Amino acid sequence: MTTTVPAHPSRPRPPQPWRRLLAVLALLGSAAAPAAEAPAVRGPESVQDWYAGGQRFVHEAARQARGPLRARNVILFVGDGMGISTLTAARILEGQRHGRPGEENRLSFETFPHVALSKTYSWDQQTADSAPTMTALITGHKAREAMLSVDHLTPRNECDAATVQAHALKSLLELAAEHGKATGVVSTARLTHATPGATYAHTPMRDWEADSNLPAGCGVKDIARQLIEVSPAVRQSLRVALGGGRTYFLPKTQEDPEYPGTRGRRNDGRDLTAEWRSSRGAHAAYVWNKAQFDAIDPAATPYLLGLFEPSHMQYDVDRARDPAGEPSLTEMTTKALEMLRRHRQGWFLHVEAGRIDHAHHAGNAQRALLDTIELSNAVRRAMEMTDPAETLIIVTADHSHTFTIAGYPHRGNDILGLVRDVPDVDGQPVALSKDRNGLPYTTLGYQNGPGYRVTRPDLTRGDPTALDYLQEAAVPLGSETHGGEDVAVFARGPGASLVHGSMEEHWVFHVMHRAFGF
Amino acid sequence: MAAPSRRALLALAALAALPFLPDRSTAGSSHEPAAAEPAPLAAQYRAVWQGAGRPARTETWTFYRDAQRIALLKPQEQEVWLRDRSGVRLQRLFHADRTLVDYSAGELRTLRIEAEWSALATLFDERLLARLRRPRGDHWAGRLGDERLTLQWDPQRRLPVTLVRQGPHGTLTLTRLAVAAGMVPPHWPPPTPDRDDYDRLDAADFGDRADDPFVRRLLAREVRLGWRQHAD
Hints:
The complex is a heterodimer of chains A (518) and B (232).
Chain A: E1 3-4, H1 17-29, E2 41-42, H2 47-64, E3 73-79, H3 84-97, E4 114-119, H4 130-139, H5 161-167, H6 172-178, E5 182-190, H7 194-197, H8 223-228, H9 232-237, E6 238-244, H10 272-279, E7 285-287, H11 290-295, E8 304-307, H12 329-340, E9 347-353, H13 356-361, H14 365-385, E10 391-397, E11 400-401, E12 403-405, E13 420-421, E14 431-432, E15 444-449, E16 473-476, E17 482-483, E18 487-492, E19 501-504, H15 507-516
Parallel strand pairs in A: 1-2, 3-9, 3-10, 4-19, 5-6, 5-9, 6-8, 7-8, 15-16
Antiparallel strand pairs in A: 4-18, 10-18, 11-17, 12-15, 13-14
Chain B: H1 6-11, E1 41-51, E2 57-65, E3 69-73, E4 77-84, E5 87-94, E6 99-103, H2 105-110, H3 117-121, E7 133-136, E8 139-144, E9 147-154, E10 159-167, E11 170-180, E12 199-202, H4 213-224
Parallel strand pairs in B: 6-12
Antiparallel strand pairs in B: 1-2, 1-11, 2-3, 3-4, 4-5, 5-6, 7-8, 8-9, 9-10, 10-11
């Protein structure tokens, strides 16, 4: 059964030339190729609707905007899975770690003057994954589940490279490169993961990170290969790429330098880290540990690739245990800015705190919040290193999670602890709030995930403030899911005033695009 | 009797009833110091699983341990614990699915799995012997959590000779067939922790792959046996 979401009655369906062109192409090619199945769920929009809507939004906003609208540089920070409840709890936790009640604290970007809400649904998902959401942020178009920077007409699992190329959506990184700007990508997840991957790759399947992930005979390049085999403009522009995912760049015949017994996962025998160096000139560098990273002189290193883990980087709180050492998100952001800000024509940088999402999926709130605090630290560093008169900084999330802050805890109550509410009578001590069975409960929880218990335990016997604690969940799932509510967008600098009100997620691209003045 | 510690549960992990993954019961805490690490060796066991209302299944399991690796090889699955400066990490191989799953040290910590090396290396946490009765010699018996155990312990090699676990899901009986302290017999299957012809997943990505049938099955098994559960 196919579900077509009806068009909004107030918006007439516009002509869809792309559909007609594709229909013709399909006719010409249909003798050889079987017709693709229609998607089971389809939104009512055309590909052009997305772009046109975003352009309309910024055009109308610009007419009423105050302050400068042109930026020389743009930074897009994304907290993967950093919903509003995550922001709230992280700000409280940060404040409490500094000995304050916490609620009055502000994360660095919460001082930005312009704020909006962002609607994160995709073309076919009410609650979306990171692939179409980052595609929206970086290309100005909403897209399909699991697809990176290709339009929503792309057939699922399409393996014809020409077809994928025909559906490719240019990212802001690619546009910046074409306009002579330097660019960079930083993430604590694998560099080939959905969010950073959408900035430079075009693929119908986010999981195609190395060639060993591709279906047999698939003609589409894997994502790691796309980082190396970029267009000439991007090859010249992309100065710095830092994150995890080392094994996706190394051949299976090669052992990982940090973890004996782990090998690369490429079947094609290629060492893409070596190809980065060979394709970017004599002074291009590749690093895989903290000492090498620290030794990099931004003034003497025109191109830098850093892959600090075989897969994702460590959670910030676990970083000290990394055997070879790895830089923090703040340190990576600093290094990237030191390299990029040397370019007089300006630059674009994307920075992702990629593991907030993973911690929430695991039902482990404290790691999610600590990684959020580290993102705030990275933003603070960017604020210190850039001129607000020429650099637009946007901080947002791609989607939310089912994470909640509940009960009536008193001001300053340990955000990680049990709910203790305000006493009814002055002079009485605070006391635990109890459920209807007389058992206490934590402030933090999840709507679903691994924290489900058939019978609620007595939490006074455990330590809910422990780092590894998994907060309770209402619905039993092995892995907690994303949340569908809006996320926040914070903006500072030229063009930031275009961020306002209730926005479609892909309008964020149009704000950045307008700020660059392309 | 106090509930087994998480350490104990991990040591029992390799002995999980077929075809389930390591189980855990309610975690307690133990402050007893770990014993010195046992000498490297390999061993083979006959494993008989009798599930409730099901015919018995018999398999040969091969066990390896050294300073950096502890591996338990079953016909359909393989579990390899690896130790390095990052801590202890795990690789699970599922031959029918041709899939290898990596659990980094950080991911195991997020899952609240405390990988005590000496407990894993002996297939049974020797500290639990103190909670069992000792009717004679190196024979032990008693209850741990919801399981009844009978055990013949080899104190020299620090491995079970026999181990019977009777639990709510069925009975697992391990009988040691052979031990190799030096050269491993050539017909014993070697541990291959890094199959490059298998699909490779990072357990940290399970949240993004909840629709994957393999991931769904593995998550359900892990949850059922206590690997992704509430803290207490």
